[in-house]
Amino acid sequence: MKSRILPTLIACFTSSVFADGELSDFTKFGGFELEKTELKEIISKIGDAPVHKEGDAGESYTGICYFYPIQNITAFYESGEMGCSTTLLSYKFLSGKTTRYPCATIEDGGSQPFSLGGFKIGQTLKAAESLLPLKPYSVQGNVYTYWNRIPFTEKDYLKVGAEQSDNLTWDDMVTIEIYTNEDIVTGYGVSRVITW
């Protein structure tokens, strides 16, 4: 009996760590990390950009964007209520210049690689899908959601005032969306929200 339980436990923990490792290729870009980087850090590193805010509460949106004319790509860095309108919760990279709201233009941005987890604008949808992490929690069209549970650390228990016997976890939801036109990738976006 004991010999069966240990390999099962190892497999469970290994697959959880493996999935998280795969997702880090999508949750980190250009030195920025979803749920950790502040929008002001992005402005400091890339350059001044108008901060766009709209809505309130669950419908709130705060974002900055940059247009790279050499590559013809618009990059969005976004937050909202879950990020207190300051923490990076999502980014999107779209082909062309957007008219959604004013973006800063980065003239010398030709060297900035806009490849995320191997995704590239202009590749086929099939090629992009082959790069996705395995076993999404849900798939709706070209939207792939991954769910992971992260055990509380001792510091987390102290912060929320809970007992360790409660066995609490954080819910980590990562969503990857691929935008296409006739099965050619025209953009992609990744969002992440960690809740208790």
Low-confidence stretches: 1-20
Structural class: alpha+beta
What is the residue-mean pLDDT, rounded to a whole number?
82
The ordered H/E elements are: HEEHEEEEEHEEHEE
Please characterize this protein's 3D structure.
- The protein is of the alpha+beta class.
- It has a domain at 31-114: Beta-lactamase Inhibitory Protein, Chain:B, domain 1.
- The protein contains four helices and eleven strands, in the order H-E-E-H-E-E-E-E-E-H-E-E-H-E-E.
- Strands 3, 4, 5, 6, 7, 8, 9, 10 and 11 form a nine-stranded mixed sheet that branches. A two-stranded antiparallel ribbon has the order 1-2.
- Keywords: Signal.
- Residues 1-19 form the signal peptide.
Any key phrases for this structure?
23% helix; 196 residues; disordered N terminus; 9-stranded mixed sheet; signal; two-stranded antiparallel ribbon; Beta-lactamase Inhibitory Protein, Chain:B, domain 1; alpha+beta
Summarize the structure.
The protein has four helices and eleven strands, in the order H-E-E-H-E-E-E-E-E-H-E-E-H-E-E. With about 200 residues, it is α+β, with helices and mostly antiparallel strands. The strands form two sheets. Strands 3, 4, 5, 6, 7, 8, 9, 10 and 11 form a nine-stranded mixed beta sheet that branches. A two-stranded antiparallel ribbon has the order 1-2.
Topology:
Layout: H1 2-27, E1 28-29, E2 32-33, H2 39-46, E3 52-54, E4 61-68, E5 73-80, E6 90-95, E7 104-105, H3 125-129, E8 138-140, E9 143-151, H4 154-160, E10 169-181, E11 184-195
Signal peptide: 1-19
Keywords: Signal
